[in-house]
């Protein structure tokens, strides 16, 4: 009877040890999974931060470029012009080509400074919108690839 009880006790210890080893293995696997998930999240956060920094720099660069352009327009260092179709200027263009001129030359008309400033303001907003859209798209791509 004593040997049966002792065998039973030893079997219980073995079983307990196996259960402890199984629990330890499961705990180690869970810790490894949590660490891997944390690492993936940190990598994703770093990439998102890099993207954010890049898009803020692009936005700042675009704003500086627009400011320089506005300054050049204000000082008349730069004038905006548009191409005009010859048909709309028939009264202003001679009917025959004169010596030294080209019959098919493009005609440009200068824009008034106020109109030029409005055009620059519109393009500035458009640039900012495109940069923001690119940043949002990159953010979504990073989130999808980070899964």
Q: In a few lines, what is going on in this structure?
A:
This protein has two helices and two strands.
Q: What is the assembly state of the chains in this entry?
A: single chain
Poorly predicted runs of 5 or more residues: none
Strand content: 5-15%
Number of strands: 2
Strand order of the biggest β-sheet = 1-2
Through-space gap between termini: 60 Å
Helix/strand/pairing class, anyone? mainly alpha
- Overall mean confidence score, pLDDT: 83
N-to-C SSE string, H for helix and E for strand: HEEH
Gyration radius over CA: 37 Å
Tally of helical runs: 2
What kind of sheet is the major sheet?
2 strands, antiparallel
Explain what the structure shows.
The chain is mainly α. It contains 2 helices and 2 strands. It has helices at residues 2-74, 113-145; strands at residues 81-84, 107-110. 0% of the residues are buried. The model has no long low-confidence stretch (mean pLDDT 83).
Features:
5% strand; mainly alpha; 2 helices; 72% helix; 2 strands; 147 residues; rod-shaped
Helices and strands in order:
Blueprint: H1 2-74, E1 81-84, E2 107-110, H2 113-145
Antiparallel strand pairs: 1-2
